[in-house]
Amino acid sequence: MFMTNPFAELSALISTDVMQMYVIVMAILVAGGTILDMMHKKSAKYFFLDSEKNAKNAKRTVSTGEKAGLAVATLANEVLTSGEFANTKRRISHLLSMYGFIIFVASSGLMIFECDSVSATTLAQAWHIGAIMLAVGGYWFWFFIRVDVNSEGVRWYQLRKADMFIVSLLLMVTFGLIWSYLQSKGGKVSDMGSTSLFFGLFILSTTFLFSTVLWSKFAHMFFKPAAAFQKRVAHADGGALNLPEDFDLSSPEVQARFPDIPEYMGKNPENMGPGIRREPANHY
User: What are the residues whose beta carbons fall under 8 Å from the beta carbon of 204, sequence distance 6 or more?
Assistant: First the structure.
């Protein structure tokens, strides 16, 4: 199973041109859905308006070299290692799902477009390893980490509109692995049996995943790195995302500016710190 390219067996029934055209159509659906999502939610407009507002409040100019360093830091932390997750289990689950998805999709494309620079066995192994990583990370998240299940008592089988992304993702990889297993045991899609059934379910769930970008969380994967980079630049230039300054409440200057501080909190108020960190992160 791990050594076999499932798409090679499929080529006896479906031509390579048709499979390649399907991949291209899915890519177009993702690009189009992402653009429509940004237009519908006006996320790009908000992003640029917020950036302009922060630039007006900036206390210093961030050089091009410093921005390049911030971009590298964003890539290393928020993108490659998902450092924004304080919950270790959530972070590991996300990394497994993210890298599994990337390996799974990339190896699928290379196998379908018959890449000669990588051996067929290596691509087949990458496809199955990526699928298993995605399944482990995704099911771990779905049953044990999801905030409404973990913290709000919602049953795992209660579905909402926001769940269409993770559900279709898990169905795609599950049906894909079952189809590959059955095919490695001698089953053929042309036999119209269980192998055909799970291949059809694999294609159906894959099509649903990539065609519903407008209504799922898929598009946030492209917007998230840009927002993380903007946040780093805002802290570097002193704009601080238009948030209030972090005052020292025991400072005489601050107390003179805000006379109700000593009235309600005393002349030497305790620094209580960020309340969100008083207990370990247990969900998102």
Answer: none
